[in-house]
Amino acid sequence: MEEEIIAVFKKNGFSLDEEEEIAKKSLNVESSQLGLSFCINYNLKPSDIVSSWEVYYLNRQLDESTVQNAQMDGFLQYLQDVQKEAAIMEESDLHFYSSKDVDMILNDEDGDTKEGVLGSPTEKSQGLYSEPFDSTPQTNGGIFSSGKPFKHVTPFGQRTDKFVVKFNTNNMPNAENRENELAHENNDDDIIRKVQPRERCSLIVHGSGPEPGCRFMYDRIDDRFNALENRIKRHTTALVASGLYEETVDPTVASQKSIFAVGMICCDGEGHLNEKSILLQSSVEHSGGQRVRLELQKLSQFSVFPGQVVGIEGHNPSGHCLIASKLVDSIPLSTAADVNLHPAKKQALDQEIQSTDLSHKQEELSVIIASGPFTTTDNLSFEPLTELLAYATRKLPQVLILLGPFVDSEHPEIKKGTTDRSFDEIFHVEILRRLQDHVEYMGSNARVILVPSIRDANHDFVFPQPAFEIHSPNLKHQITSLTNPGTFEANQVKIGCCTVDILKHLSGEEMSRNPADGTPIDRMSRLANHILRQRRFYPLYPPAEGIPLDFSLAPESLHISSIPDILILPSDMKYFVKVLSLGEGGEGGEQVKCICVNPGRLAKGEGGGTFAELNYYGGPDTSNASIIGI
């Protein structure tokens, strides 16, 4: 068989510097890396070995023509790992033990009493979670040689500040929460006992999104036109129905008297908005979709961006320029009822909500929110994720919300293609398997929500984005995947989330004027308020460069039918927790408040980032939240 291996290598254009040695290593029964029995067990043929070598040398950018004997040990170890991972993927309960594991089991006479018998990956994760603030995770799942995590030295593992509160608001801890925390704090024993969360929260997923497997095909012009036209019509109907504004007219027709028009903000040409380049595009019904220059000089303050749908009060004396005296950028709350759901579907949701009313007297929810990347740029060990799960094990949140990217396409190893594993394999082994260990350890009351990102290398590059496909029956009752963007209710608390960095995109396109009296303006609150005022997760149009926005795929999934209690907008911009107010308030005025959270990124470069912990009690004014550095 040695001659056959050499022949296949040469047939595929490779030369061997030491033919006999390389062939023997590929078959050597005494080799600790890859024996003949290994080839037989995995049904490997010479062609399989050569095919694997092609992948190996391409990933490592080795010499394309010569197979060197010095490279074979590393290649054979790689090949063995690939076959083991493939076997594990086929049979999730299968676990491979290393020689160190076997030695420990055979030689450690006191193993049962000292550190416990080595068990399955799930059992080993309990040892990991028992030291949430001092545990260092392993690479690729790692192997425990003594019942404790193997200390892999990385810049992340060497950091000194762990779980430091960066920011908190409304620090009013619930008595029951504090009681639970005290029950877990023991200075003499840092082992976290396995305790069930208070109760399993209800969960209702709203809306619909694209089907899995869709691809961005550059949406048709008709779909784009219809989506934009429907947005303008929706705002027009809502503003007129409120009774606060007159019937809309064509803003391009010359008129000396005051008129009211609704349209979309556009930019006259390429580049950013400025005072001379603002256009208003009205609907086809009122102006045939024509645009007119918009003059905002008379307004003391405003904030506009391309794609924003606004109502304008003003006059157009020449027919070429609409001079605004008032700008309305929000739909009145009284007309914000959801008119997009099919009646049968809407009724089914109402029945589910009514059933949960019987078991929940007040809206209460404890959540931990983290946004990817979940691993540092110097490796694919996913150390920050492991420590986050350890923290969640201690805090016992009712819901753990994880937002992508999970397998980040911007990670150096992913971007360069130097990883030995497929993207799907990384996601299932490093993400889903860790989460499965976590929920099994936490018990049936634990819930995990996953929201994908367009930066996920293993998922559909399209926006709106379908949910992850999680086929494992052991996970579906505790791990739920949402579309991106997505909306759901947990214990009647409405939560909306979108992993596209709309805050960063708006900050680069927004044009604003602050009040002349010098009143300070919170820019982050203003940017986040645009999402609620426009009732849209991504109101910017045209979208930012690199955003695969496709209006042909479930365009209504971008629409926000009702103001959520919690709005999660992960961003590269600085973390924050803010209470947003919508509506006039005051006597007889309706006002709605929403907690907006940017948890930051869990991993930043080679170091740790931040995540958010939120305890919701009936409303923003009685809730508390913290941003925690990992």
Automatic annotation (TrEMBL):
Pfam families to which the protein is assigned, alphabetical: DNA_pol_E_B, OB_DPOA2
Q: What is its main location?
A: nucleus
The protein's name is: DNA polymerase alpha subunit B
InterPro entries recorded: DNA_pol_a/d/e_bsu, DNA_pol_alpha_bsu, OB_DPOA2
Residue ranges of region Disordered? 110-145
Location relative to the cell:
Nucleus
Where is the chain membrane-spanning? none
User: Where is this chain compositionally biased, Polar residues type?
Assistant: 122-143
Q: Which residues form the DNA polymerase alpha subunit B OB domain?
A: 228-328
Q: Would the keyword Transmembrane be found if you checked this record's keyword annotation?
A: no
